[in-house]
Design a protein that fits this description.
A hairpin with a 6-residue loop joins β2 and β3. It contains four helices and three strands. The chain has one domain. It has a three-stranded antiparallel sheet, with helices on both faces. α2 runs antiparallel to α3. It is globular, with a radius of gyration of 14 Å. It starts with a helix and ends in a 7-residue tail after the last helix. The chain has 113 residues and is of the alpha+beta class.
């Protein structure tokens, strides 16, 4: 996880994902090669800014995706930023569900649990 805003903004611009407005929370996801990137933007003045999560080689490192989802789940139980974190958790869960498809696309070996 990083909150280095310059690095995050550069990546968002490079991937044509930069928000046009900054008055509402946002969840943005994209792929950098075989890495899954999830960017959260918090609009609240008290904690305004970006956070970026990257799971390298996500189609194989599915356990890391589960840990990220579980982390968001724990924060949701504490009722922290419910709207944006529920969107983030749903986005991660969706990619977990699609991991097998991405492994096939990337020609990776099946993960054995």
């Amino acid at each position: 996880m990083t909150n280095e805003e310059e690095e995050i903004i550069d990546a968002l611009v490079d991937h044509h994902e930069m928000p046009k407005k900054f008055d509402v929370d946002k969840v943005i996801s994209y792929f950098e090669g075989e890495n899954f990137c999830l960017v959260l933007y918090f609009a609240n003045l008290q904690d305004r800014g970006f956070q970026k999560f990257v799971v390298n080689d996500f189609s194989v490192n599915v356990e890391e995706m589960y840990m990220l989802s579980a982390s968001f789940g724990k924060l949701l139980e504490q009722e922290v930023n419910i709207h944006v974190l529920s969107q983030a958790k749903n986005r991660v869960d969706h990619v977990i569900h699609m991991a097998g498809t991405f492994r096939a696309l990337f020609r990776k070996k099946e993960v054995v649990d």
